[in-house]
Each structure stands twice: as C-alpha cells, then as structure tokens.
Amino acid sequence: MAKKDIDWENIGFGYIKTDNRYVTNFKDGKWDDGVITEDDKVVISECAGVLQYSQSCFEGLKAYTTEDGRVVTFRPDLNDARMHDTCLRLEMPTLPEGRFVEAVDKVVKANLDWVPPYGSGATLYIRPYMFGSNPVIGVKPADEYQFRIFVTPVGPYFKGGAKPVKLKISDFDRAAPRGTGHIKAGLNYAMSLHAIVTAHKEGYDENLYLDPATRTKIEETGGANLIFVDHDGNLVIPKSSSILPSITRRSLHVVAEKYLGCKVTEREVLLSEVEDGAFAEAGLCGTAAVISPVGSIDDHGKVIYLPSGMEKMGPVTQKLYDTLTGIQMGHIEGPEGWVHVIE
Ligand SMILES: *Cc1c(COP(=O)(O)O)cnc(C)c1O
Fold it and tell me: Which of 191, 243, 247, 300 has the fewest other C-beta atoms within 10 Å?
C-alpha cells in the first residue's frame, strides 16, 4: 500500500482510471451480490435500454482524508435516498436496503491509494450510476440493469481562490414543471449541453434557469443549486418542485442556522427581486465546488452585479464555505451522522 505518485494539487476535474470499481447486475427481478473488479469496460447489447431511450441515472459524492488521517464520505445516506427516488421516477429497480453505502465503502477501500492526502485540496470523486442493459426496442423500461461505481481523484476546484462566476439567464429550460428536474437523471444533462456550450461561447460560466411555467422565478443552474444572502446576512433559498435537492444546499441550510445563527428561508425567489437588489451575495452549491460565489447575472443585456463583487466570496458565503468544508475535513465537529468513516 502506497499512495499513487500523483501531483495532487494539479490534477484538475477529469477522469483518471483507478484500480478498482464496483459492479452489480439486476436480472430476473433481483440484484446479484456485487463485486469489486479491475475491469473498467462495460459490454452491453447494441439495443440496450440506456442506448435507445436513455434510461440512466447517477449520483456524485466525495471521499476526503481528514486532518487526523481518516478516510470519510459526507452524508452518503442522502445520496442513497436520492438515487432511490430517482430510480422510482425512471421505472428502474432500487438497490437492496444498505447496499448503496456498503458499495461506496467497498469501492473506496479498494482504491485507498487513490484518495488524495489531507491538505492537498484534492478529493476522491465517487460516481455511482445505473442503466438499463438488456435490449429494448418498444418503448418500455428495461428488464435488466447494471449499477456501477467508479472513483476518480479530482483536484481542488478553485486554484488560487474562488473566483466569482458570471451567470446568464438562459432562454432554454432545464426542467418541465412536472418533469424530471428533481431527480438525477442523465437525460437532464444531455439536454443541457447545447445551452451550456452556447453560454460558454458567449463568455458566461453557467446558465441560470428560470421556472419554465412563468419564467419569473429562479430555479438553479445546470448542475448546482442557488443560495442568496440578503442585506441582513440571512439566507434565502429558492424553492421549487423542479429543483434538484442538492445535499450541499440542504447541509448549508443547517450550517447557516445551527453554526452561524442566520435565519434561513426557503421560498420562491423572483428574478425581479434579484434585479431590484434584494441580495448582497449569491452562491452556487454542489458537491464539486461546495460553493462558487456568483459575481453577476446577465438578463438579456441587463446585468445585475452582486454587491460582493467580482473578486472574492462575500463574507457570509465565505463563512458557510469554511464551516461546511471544516466539517467535511474533520476539524469542525459536524451534526450527528454527517461524516461517515470508511477507514
Ligand atoms: C447534482 C446536482 C446538484 C448538486 O447536488 P449535490 O448533492 O449538492 O452535489 C445541483 N443541481 C443539479 C441539477 C444536480 O444534478
């Protein structure tokens, strides 16, 4: 056992093939026992359900090395519960009780040499996913599925500090009102690609999607929820049934209330409030970056600059970030059950 010889600080956010992955198959109405394997290749029928009708979903979480050298994950039970909800909505089989977290633990243990060391800023990204694997040509759910987990080390999201991002109010929609916006389905990402490529060409970092029914309310970006801080330092979180329930955002809600003593309100947030200057700070939250500060929001040429500016995180956002990452890295005591020790 020796850590891989990797320049941890400079690896970026890309796929690096590690030694081991977890695979389990669903057939004849049940899951097999699951194995750790070195085989990174997936061999499926040319007519597999996932290839024809995109029956696939995923999760994303990280393993960290804490200050005292433990390897931990953060609230993996919530990834398990969210994948369960996603599978039900996509007519996919759910995993047996307890299997998700057990499989995450196994695959991290089988790749311990790939877990970046404490202090490097890098982490081990964990990607559980499931897809319909048997031939499907008439439109219906597959009968057979594969659930896999691979891991890949990822570098610090922000090199040299978090630079505020530039958002654009998108002309595209992310999620229909009673559609699939609240689940982690691959199809939500497939249809966002044209919008994000377009936004990048125009010089923006991300698209900010509005509610598709009225186009007046803030939803989220392609892969992160939004939070706002008002001028009294309190947290305002957009609420909608088509926003993906981010675990980072739900954790920040608790951190703001219990650790920072902020008032937290989850409610519909109108674009017009943002334009009228109701907020002092805004941030994007998700597993990858924890929080990315928002610098500006461009609504068709009318640019809203958040008072926190284009250089650094606002003070409340910074405190939220420091507290949550402190809990994840083990130097701040988290609420019961948040830090799951693997090794
Ligand atoms: C995964 C995801 C997020 C972030 O969720 P976390 O659980 O915090 O990583 C936010 N929005 C969308 C659309 C996502 O797919």
Answer: 300
> Burial letters for 279-298: b for 16+ Cβ neighbours within 10 Å, e otherwise?
bbbbbbbbbbbbbbbbbbbb
Query: Average pLDDT of 75-101?
Result: 98
Distance CA 229, CA 245 (A): 19
Pocket of ligand 1 (CB under 6 A): 60, 184, 220, 223-225, 244, 246-249, 285-287
Kind and range of the H or E element at 148?
strand 145-154
Q: Out of 184, 263, 312, 319, which one is annotated catalytic? A: 184
Average pLDDT score over residue span 23-49: 98
296: β partners: 166, 305
Instruction: Determine the 3-state secondary structure of 162 from DSSP.
Output: coil
> What's the pLDDT score for residue 26?
98
Cβ atoms within 10 A of the Cβ of 189, count?
15
Percent of the chain at pLDDT exceeding 90: 94
Give 120's contacts (C-beta < 8 A, 6+ positions apart): 8, 9, 156
Most ligand 1 atoms within 8 A of CB, residue of 157, 174, 218, 225 to mutate: 225
DSSP state of 101: H
Residue labelled with tokens 């219990």: 258
d(CA 324, CA 259): 10
List the structure tokens of 325. 């990452």
Instruction: Give, for 189, the enclosing helix (H) or strand (E).
Output: helix 186-190
Q: How far is the CA of 138 from the centre of ligand 1 (A)?
A: 32
Angle in degrees, CA 151, 155, 156, rounded to 5: 130
Q: What is the reported pTM?
A: 0.97
